[in-house]
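G., the chain you wanted modeled:
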Amino acid sequence: MLEDLDSLFPATKTSRRGFMATSLCTGFALAVQPINAQDVITTDTNGLVAGEVKIPTNMGEIPAYRAMPATGKNFPTVLVVQEIFGVHEHIKDVCRRFAKLGHLAIAPEMYARQGDVSKLQMRDIMPIVQKVPDSQVMSDLDATVAWAGKNKGNTSKLGITGFCWGGRIVWLYAAHNPKVKAGVAWYGRLVGGQQASPLQPKHPIDFAATLKVPVLGLYAGKDGGIPLASIDQMKAELAKGKSKSEFVIYPEAQHGFHADYRPSYKKDDAQDGWKRLQAWFKKYGAA
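Predicted structure as C-alpha cells:
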C-alpha cells in the first residue's frame, strides 16, 4: 500500500527556504480565543519528559511536541495529529495525557512549511491550510515515526489519533502505512467536499474498501460539516473490506466535542470517546 500511495501522493518540492514555522506556539492559538477556561484540562508533566523536539525530514526539520514517561524505554508510540489550529496547547495536553498512560506521544507541526497559523484568525488560517499537500503530511508522519523509533518509542506498537483536520489524516495515514496497529479519528472529513486536487487527490472514502488498519471513528450527530449521510457512505465502503473499522456516533454532540477549550466541548461524550480510544488501542496492539 505504501508504494501505491506514493504514486498518489507525489513528493512535495518545497525547499528549506519555504519553512515559515520553526517552533511551536505557546498557549492556545489566537483563532480559538477566548477559550472556555472553566473546562480546560491541564495535564502536568510530573513523571514525564515533555517539550518541543525537531523532526528531521527529507526537506529539513519540523517542530513537534513530544511527551513520554521520564523513566523506561520502548514506549508504545502514538502520533497525535493536530486540529486545523496547529499544535497548540490542547494538542500538547493530549500528548501529555497519553504519556501518563505510558505512551510516547508526538504531535508534529503539519503546516510548518506553509506558515505559522497560531497567531492568525480563522479567516486567515484557511489559505495556509489549503496549501498543505497530503503527500507532505504522509512523508512528515513517516519521518516522525522514524524519529520516535530512535528515541525510546516502540513503533511496533504504533497508534494514531487526530482531531478535525487531523481526523481525516488518521484515515489517510492508516491507508498509507499498514504498520499502524490502530487509529482513532475524531470527527474528520470522510468524503471530498470539492473536486479532487493535486494537493488532496483522494479522501478517506476512496481507501475504505482496501483499508487494512482498524480505525475507530468518533463522530458527532449534530456536526454541521460532516453529515451523517457521509458516515453511512463510509460505512458501506468499509463493509467491502476487512479492516474491522467501526464508528461511534454521539447523537447530541457537535463538531469539536473533544476540544475542552471550546464551547462545543461535551464532557460526557469526550470522556467516553477517550475510554473507547484506550480500549481500541489495547485491543489492536497499539498499547
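Residues 172 and 204 are 6 Å apart (CA to CA).

Shout if anything looks off.
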